[in-house]
Amino acid sequence: MTEPTIYELSSPGRQGVRYPQPDVPLAELPQDLVRKELPLPELSELNVIRHFTHLSHLNYSIDGGFYPLGSCTMKYNPKINEEMARLPGFLHTHPLQPIETVQGNLALMYELQEYLKEITGFDAVTLQPAAGAQGEFTGVMIIRAYHKSRGDTKRTRILVPDSAHGTNPATSAMSGYEVVHIPSDKRGNVDINAIRAACDDTVAGLMLTNPNTLGLFEEQVVEVNKIVHQAGGLVYGDGANLNALLGITRPADLGFDIMHINLHKTFSTPHGGGGPGSGPVAVTAALKEFLPGPIVEVIEEGDEEMPPMFGFYQPNQSIGRVKAFHGHFGMMVRAYTYISMHGAEGLRKVAEYAVLNANYLLARLRGTYKVPYDRICKHEFVAEGVWDDAPGVHALDIAKRLMDYNFHPPTNYFPLIVREALMIEPTETETKQTLDRFADVMLKIAEEAHQQPDLLHEAPHNTPVGRLDEVKAAKELVLCCWLPEQVQN
Amino acid sequence: MKVPSNLKYTKTDEWVKVEGNIATIGISDYAQSQLSDIVYFEFKVDAGETVHKDQSIATVESVKAAADVNAPVSGKVVELNNALTDKFEAINTDPYGAAWMLKIEMSNPSELDTLMDAAAYESYCQERGH
Amino acid sequence: MYTPHTDSEREEMLKVIGVPSIESLFEDVPAEHRFPKLNLPEPLSEMEVTAQLQELSSINETTQDLICFLGAGAYNHYVPAAVDTILRRGEFYTAYTPYQPEISQGTLQAIFEYQSLIANLTGMDASNASHYDGATATAEAAVMAYHHFRGKRTRIVVSPAVNPQYRAVVRTYMAGYETVEITGDQQINPFHAPEDLLPLIDTNTSLVIVQYPDFFGRVRDYTNLAQIVHEAGALLAVVINPLALALFKSPGEMGADIACGEGQPLGIPLSYGGPYLGIFATKKEYVRKMAGRLVGETTDKQGRRGYVLTLTAREQHIRREKATSNICTNQGLMALAATVYMSLLGKTGLRQVAELCYHKAHFTAQQINQIPGFEVDLSTPFFHEFVVKCPDSVEAINEYLLDNGILGGYDLGNDYPSLKNHMLIAVTEKNTREDIEILCEALKEYSHD
Question: Under 8 Å CB-to-CB from A269, ≥6 apart: which residues?
Fold first, then answer.
C-alpha cells in the first residue's frame, strides 16, 4: 500500500487553515523583492490529518512493539513527560525573555543540572548541546581548550577504541585531532597495554564508552583513566550507555573528566523518529570554566520567604556557544519529570532491570547464537548473526525476518569488531513475557536459517514495502517531489 | 577475480601501470567487488598537484561503504580521468580499463619496489577471503 | 511503574541467568565505587509531579500573559491544533531514526515531503532532513564550504547582520580548523549594504554568509552579491527565515549556493528556545557535500515506491574520522511539525501569514516612528522585524513595558556596542491592532515621563 505524497494530494484552491483579515492598513510591498511563484501543495485539514495518520501506520514504534535496538536505549517514553513539556507556562516562553519572567524555567534547568551532577558525580553541567554527537563535540572542544589554556600545544592526538561509535572518531577529527585507534582485548575491554603504549605528551585525551559498545563494563577503567591522566591527557566518557550505570556507579568516581548524557536514551525523552535529542555535558570542577555558556546559576540566594533568584552565568574560558539559546528546553522538562518520578531508588532499579533483561535474553540465546565476548553483560550484548553451517544467511537477513514476527530488529553490523553483529538492548521497561516471545522467535529464526534460508533472504514478507533498492536511491538521487503542474513544465 | 599480470598492486587495493615515468592508477577488481555497486566517485586532488605516497587522492562510495584511494607513489598528478566522475559504474564493470583514475609523474620510482606483483597480490586477496 | 517485573519473575530470570542476585550482575564494577548513595529528592507519583510542574511553570510569565514583541531568532506564531495532534502520535514520536526502511516508511515519507517543501520554499535543488537549529545549520554551511575546497580556501566572510548567536556558533564549530579566518562581522557597520562585503571577498574565500531578512529584519537583494561571490570562486550561504520566503524572492532565485536557517516559525512553539529546526538546502552540485540525513525515493523488488536514507556512506558511522560531520540525528519530530504546518497552510495560507506579519510590522513601525524620541528607519524594506532608536536604555524601556504587560523588543546593545539604545521589535500575525496600540501608548507615556 503506497500513500500518495502531499504533492499528489494537492488540489489548487484548497487551504487547511484560515487566518483573520488584516486589522491594520496595508503597507506597500517592495515589488522588486516580492516572490512571484510559491510552488507549495494545497490541502484541506482533513486531507492533512488523514495523510499523516496513514503515514504513521507505516511506522514501527515503541508504543507499537518491542524495539531492542542496541546502543539506542529504546525504553518506554512516559506519556506524562509529553503533558509536562506542553504546560502552557513552559511552552509559551520566549528564550530571550528577561530572567525575572522565566524563573520557573530557570529553576527547572538548575535543578536538572543538579540532578545530573549528582547522578554522574561531576561538578558542573551544561544543558546546551542538542544531541549526543553535539555533546561529544562540546566535550572534545573542552579538552582542546583546556590544553590550550595551559600552553600545552603538543597534544594533537585522541585515542579511540576500535569498538567506539563512529561519532567518536568523527568528533575528534572535526575538532582538529588526529585519531589513534586502540584495539580491544580478548575479554572485550579496551587493551590497556595499547593505551599505555600510545600515551605520551602528544595525547590530548581518550574517548571511552563505558559500558562499551559490546555491552561490557570496562573492567580496568580506573587504571586506564589513570594512565591517561599520568600522561597529561583527559578522559572523555561517551555517555551513550549511562542507562546501565544509574545508581550503580558514578562515572566521575571512575576517573572520567567529561561526559555527555543522552536525555533521549537514559532519561526517556522520545527519539522522535530521529530527534530532537538532548546531550548535556558534565565536567569536573577543573573544566567548569570551559563549558559553553551560559549555564544556569543562583544569582541571589533565597531565604525562608523568598525563593532564590536564578540567572545565567558565562564561564570565563568558554569554548563558545554550540547552539542558539539554551538547548532543547522541552527535552529538559521531560527528563526532569522522569528523574522526579524515580528518585535515587527508582533510577537504580532502572539500571538493574535493564541489566537483568539483557542478561536474561543473553542466557536464552546463548548456544544458538554465538556471543564472542561472553560474560555478564550490562544493558546490552552483541551476538553474531551468522552460522558456519548456514552459509548465505547474514545478520541482515535475521534482522529483516524479525519484522515478519512484528519485532524491531536489533542494531546490526555494529560494533565493527564483531562479525555480522547483532546488538541487542532490551531496556528495563519490557516484561518477561515480551523477552520470552522475542527469544522464542530468535530461536525459531535460527532454525529457519538452517532449514528454509530463503524465508530469511526474502524477508520481510508482511511489511508495507519489501527490501528497497538502495543502489537505485543513491544513483538516481530523487530527493524531493514537485507539484504535478511543475513536473509538466 | 581478475588480476592482470602486467600491473603492480598495493595493500590498499590500488593497481599501478607503469609506462616510462608515468604511473596510471585505479582500484582492483577485488576492491570493486568488496565495495559492490559504486554510487559515487570523487577526486580529492587536482591536475598539477604534487602528491605523496599514501596520500588520499580520490573517494569511492557504495551504498554501505566509502573507501579512499591512496597514491601508491609520490609525484605530480598529470592527468585525471574526469569522465569517471559521471561514469563511475565503470569501476564495477571495467576496473582496469575505463576506470583508470589518474596518472602520476613519479618523483621517486623506487617506491614501486614496495608494491606487490600480480601473484603476490592474488594470494594477499585470497588470505583475506571474499 | 516503568519497570514491570514481579518478584517471582525476577527470581525466575536470575535463575535462568545463573546468578544468585541482581547485585551479582555488577561485580565487574569496582567495589569502592559500586552502589553510591544518590542524594536526590524522594520519588513523586504522576499526580504529584504534575502538581509540582504546574506550579513551577506558573511562575513564568508567558507570551500568552504578555503582549509579545520579542523576536531576534524565535517568533511568536500561531500553531494550528492539527500540528500537535500529529506530533502526539506514538507511531511518530516513539520511533527511532528510520534505519529499517521496511517498517519506517511513515517517518521516511514525511521527511521526503519535508525535503520537498524546503527545496521548493528556498528555491534550492535539495534539502537535507534537518539540523539541530538555525545556528548549527549555519555552522554546517561553513564546514561544508571548508571541505568543498579541501581546506585550501581559508577565509569565511560573515555579515555583522547575521544573528550574533549564529556567528558565535560558526566560530565554535570552526575553532578546530586552525587555518580558518572568520572576518567581516567585526569590520563592517552592522547596517551595511550587501556591497560593503565586496572588498573582503577574495580568491581565498570559501564562503560568504549573509542573512535574509537580516538580524535587523531588513530584506536585501543578494543577486549581485551572489554573482561577485561566484566570480571569486566562493560559495554564498543565505541564512533565511522560511516564513519570509512565502513573500519574498527565494535565495535560489538570487543565486545562493546554500540556504540555511531556523525553521521554528513553521509551526514550532517557542518552548524557551528549543527544540527547534535547522534548515539546510543546497544546489544539486553540492548535495554530496551536505552533512546530515537525506531521504531518497526508490522502489522495492515488486516495484512499489518507497523511501530510504541515502548517501549514508558520507556519514560518521561509516566514514568515522573521515566524515566531515559527526551528526547522527536530525530534528525528526520538528521537521514533521514543519511539514504538517506547511501542508495545512499551503501556498495560500503561508503567504497570508507572511503578509499579515508584514503589514502589522509596518503599521507598528510607522506608529512608533511618530512618537517623539523614537526613530525607525523606514527607507530599507523589512519583513516583520525592525530597529527602533530609543531615547533611553532599552533595559529601562523594557522594564516599563513589562509593568504594562508588554514583552518588549530585543536589546541590540547586548551584541553591538554601537547600537546602545536600539531595540529590535518583532510583530507577528498574533499581534492585534489593539496590541500594537497598547505598545505605542506605553512608549508615548514613557517618553512623556
Answer: A77, A81, A263, A277, A278, A331, A334, A335, A338
**Are A171 and A136 spatial neighbours (Cβ–Cβ below 8 Å)?**
yes
Listed by number, the residues of chain A in 456-475 with a beta carbon closer than 8 Å to a beta carbon of chain B are 470-471, 474-475
Alpha carbon of B19: minimum distance to chain C alpha carbons (Å): 30
Q: What is the pLDDT along chain C (449 residues), one digit of tens a residue?
A: 799 999 999 999 999 999 999 999 999 999 999 999 999 999 999 999 999 999 999 999 999 999 999 999 999 999 999 999 999 999 999 999 999 999 999 999 999 999 999 999 999 999 999 999 999 999 999 999 999 999 999 999 999 999 999 999 999 999 999 999 999 999 999 999 999 999 999 999 999 999 999 999 999 999 999 999 999 999 999 999 999 999 999 999 999 999 999 999 999 999 999 999 999 999 999 998 999 999 999 999 999 999 999 988 777 777 777 777 787 778 999 999 999 999 999 999 999 999 999 999 999 999 999 999 999 999 999 999 999 999 999 999 999 999 999 999 999 999 999 999 999 999 999 999 999 999 999 999 998 87
CB-nearest partner of A16 from C34, C320, C346: C346
Residue C150: its chain B contacts at CB < 8 A?
44
- Rounded CA gap, B112 and A321, in Å? 50
Q: Name which of C265, C32, C240, C22 is nearest C141 in CA terms.
A: C240
3-state helix, strand, coil in chain B (%, to 5): 25, 35, 40
Partner-chain residue, chosen from C288, C311, C318, that has the shortest CB–CB distance to B65: C318
- In whole angstroms, give the CA distance from residue C373 to residue A91: 35
Is the ipTM, as predicted for this complex, more than 0.90? Answer: yes
Sign of CA dihedral A160, A166, A167, A169: positive
Instruction: Confirm or reject contact between A250 and chain C (CB < 8 A).
Output: yes
Indicate the residue of C19, C62, C299 with minimum beta-carbon distance to A92.
C62
User: C302 contacts in A (CB within 8 Å)?
Assistant: 466
Task: Give backbone dihedrals phi and psi of C186, rounded to 5 degrees, phi first.
Answer: -90, -15
Residue C153, chain B, CB below 8 Å: the answer is no
pTM summary value = 0.96
Task: Indicate the SS3 state at residue A272.
Answer: coil
d(CA A313, CA A453): 61
* List of chain B residues whose C-beta atoms are within 8 Å of the C-beta of residue C311: 39-40, 61
Chain B residues within an 8 Å CB radius of A475: 37, 39
CB pair distance less than 8 Å for C313 and B42: no
Q: Report the distance separating Cα C343 and Cα A146, nearest Å.
A: 48
Strands (E), C325-430: 375-376, 385-389, 406-407, 410-411, 422-426
Q: Which chain C residues are closer than 8 Å to B66 by Cβ?
A: 313-314, 318-319, 322
Helices (H), C239-279: 251-254
Contact flag C296-A29 (C-beta cutoff 8 Å): no
DSSP state of A373: S
Q: Which of C69, C128, C132, C249 to mutate to test the interface with A (most CBs of A within 10 A)?
A: C132
Residues of B in contact with C318 (CB under 8 A): 64-66
